[in-house]
Design brief:
Chain A is α+β, with helices and mostly antiparallel strands. Chain A has three helices and four strands; from the N terminus they run βααββαβ. Chain A has one domain (2-83): Alpha-Beta Plaits (2-Layer Sandwich), CATH 3.30.70.20. Helices cover 24% and strands 26% of the residues of chain A. In chain A, the strands form two sheets. A two-stranded antiparallel sheet of chain A has the order 1-4. A two-stranded antiparallel sheet of chain A has the order 2-3. Chain B folds into two domains: 5-111, Alpha-Beta Plaits, CATH 3.30.70; 129-235, Alpha-Beta Plaits (2-Layer Sandwich). In chain B, β6 (92-96) and β7 (99-100) form a beta hairpin. The chains are: A alpha+beta (85), B alpha+beta (236).
């Protein structure tokens, strides 16, 4: 099992929302529940800075597709893989 | 220090798993340039030693060193070689005492546990050569698809799936991905493995084989091959 965690560079992030909008998992949750909050989103903008949300207990988490990394205009996001044995 | 001695090396081009026993050593090597992240090995592994890596990310940014499309756990691996036999892109090699074991000499093939796979070698648009031994059908559920993601088109090695053009008129519903050439599909399952939302469902209909096989090993393996990610999601 592998876990993907998003890392956001807090110095360069402008809070433009591009990652939140582009994330396919965010889209699916938005379509099902018509809102995004800390419980169902993978990445959200808080206080002007994008904040990745990882929660072990829920079954929707980052899938490692890399769309947000591609979309970020500031190149502030990277994905970190953590192995779980 | 534990025994047997286990080492796992990840470099830019390969992922190298080595287990050193008292008298012999076994190695499994993944060529990251050949691997497309189709997840065939992860699906068929009898010991669940292989897990899925960040497929879309690793194809979009192939220069990133530590990101691998398939992750091997040397503690669980028994070096049976079923992943080496079934890999459609021959990205995996098995080594014993530093020498490469040929495909015919792998124990499960030599002892006829696994039937002979009737594959067709095909040259793909990207220059890769793939073994096609199965037939599959791609279904796309348009409502579930997060339009604009394009992970499936990014990972597809054969050019079966492509990002659709925007519609001419604004009132037409836009499609994100569409199946351009269903005959080009090599049934590897990369698109299904990469889709984050489960909108793309690959259905493997038949696997071409011939010859004898063991009843205990092969039928469960085929069943695992046909169990793709969206099957698992349905059960949960």
């Amino acid at each position: 099992m592998q876990i993907y965690k998003l890392k956001v560079n807090r110095n360069t992030c402008t809070g433009c929302n591009a990652c939140v909008v582009s994330c396919p998992i965010n889209f699916n949750q938005l379509r099902k529940q018509s809102f995004l909050n800390e419980d169902n989103a993978v990445i959200l903008v808080k206080n002007g800075i994008a904040t990745p949300i990882y929660k072990e207990e829920r079954d929707i988490n980052c899938d490692g597709c890399g769309v947000c990394v591609k979309m970020c205009p500031q190149v502030a996001i990277r994905i970190e893989c953590i192995e779980e044995v | 220090m534990s025994f047997p001695k286990i080492s796992r090396n990840i470099t830019k081009d390969t992922e190298h798993v080595k287990v050193q026993f008292l008298t012999e050593s076994l190695e499994l090597i993944l060529d990251k340039n050949k691997c497309v992240g189709c997840g065939t090995c992860a699906r068929i592994c009898p010991k669940e030693a292989i897990s899925r890596g960040p497929v879309g990310y690793s194809r979009r940014f192939p220069a990133t060193e530590d990101v691998i499309p398939e992750v091997y756990n040397p503690r669980k691996c028994v070096f049976c070689g079923s992943c080496v036999v079934m890999c459609p892109f021959s990205a995996l090699t098995l080594k014993k005492d530093g020498e490469v074991i040929n495909l015919e000499d792998i124990p499960i093939v030599a002892k006829k546990v696994v039937p002979k796979i009737e594959f067709e070698a095909r040259k793909l648009k990207t220059g890769r050569i793939a073994k096609q031994y199965a037939k599959a059908k791609v279904n796309i559920i348009d409502e579930e698809c997060a339009k604009g993601c394009g992970s499936c088109a990014e990972v597809c090695p054969s050019g079966t799936i492509e990002i659709a053009k925007r519609p001419e008129h604004g009132w037409e519903i836009s499609k994100n991905v569409e199946v351009v050439d269903p005959d080009a599909c090599v049934a590897c399952g990369a698109c299904d493995n990469a889709c984050p939302t489960g909108a793309l469902q690959l259905e493997i209909t038949e696997v071409k084989t011939s010859g004898e096989f063991s009843e205990l090993f092969w039928p469960p393996l085929v069943e695992r091959l046909k169990t793709l990610r969206w099957n698992k999601r349905k059960e949960a």
